[in-house]
């Protein structure tokens, strides 16, 4: 059995998105794929587990391995190994109508998300202006937006480098509202984009 292990959130939309993803990936692979969360008491015994985390923070370094070991599960390659693919998917959607866009990519934090930040900057010629900001470290989303407002950059699209809805997305909205920026569009989380499900399915196939 294969398991998609997500963080979990008090937001009902988070769990619904993860469960829908597991069902859709199962249909692509033609085998059982179930969802699980860090709050679960255990994982299915002996399962192959794909952690749905873009970064390498405490959860990925400590909590996820401990949870997997307790149920004799095999941890598959982290999503950070596919950072270039997630980055390309985001750019594809953000530049679909025009490449003349200013994009601020919102990372959870910089520490542990180096692979994602590097992948985003490696493709930064795909639009007018690109920057990264953090929701939990500096430079923050608010400070980057204030800088761009001061420099009269114009319209800005903020792309959350988050997989699902949840309380972190709510924090991002608060940081945008706290800035002086007057023309900001908040893009959807990554799981909302066409191609996300296939990308997760591919992560499972390549890890086997």
TrEMBL record:
Would you tell me the protein name for this molecule?
Cobalamin (Vitamin B12) biosynthesis CbiX protein
């Amino acid at each position: 059995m294969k398991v998609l292990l997500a963080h979990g959130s008090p937001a009902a939309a988070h769990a619904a998105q993860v469960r829908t993803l597991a069902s859709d990936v199962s249909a692509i692979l033609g085998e059982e794929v179930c969802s699980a969360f860090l709050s679960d008491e255990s994982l299915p015994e002996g399962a192959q587990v794909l952690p749905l985390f873009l970064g390498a923070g405490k959860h990925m370094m400590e909590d996820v391995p401990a949870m997997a070991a307790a149920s004799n599960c095999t941890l598959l390659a982290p999503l950070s190994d596919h950072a270039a693919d997630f980055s390309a998917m985001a750019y594809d959607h953000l530049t679909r109508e025009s490449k003349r866009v200013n994009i601020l990519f919102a990372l959870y934090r910089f520490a542990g998300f180096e692979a994602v930040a590097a992948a985003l900057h490696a493709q930064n010629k795909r639009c007018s202006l690109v920057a990264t900001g953090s929701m939990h470290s500096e430079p923050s989303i608010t400070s980057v937006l204030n800088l761009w407002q001061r420099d009269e950059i114009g319209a800005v699209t903020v792309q959350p480098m988050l997989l699902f809805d949840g309380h972190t997305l709510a924090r991002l909205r608060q940081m945008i509202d706290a800035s002086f920026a007057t023309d900001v569009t908040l893009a959807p989380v990554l799981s909302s984009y066409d191609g996300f499900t296939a990308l997760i399915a591919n992560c499972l196939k390549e890890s086997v």
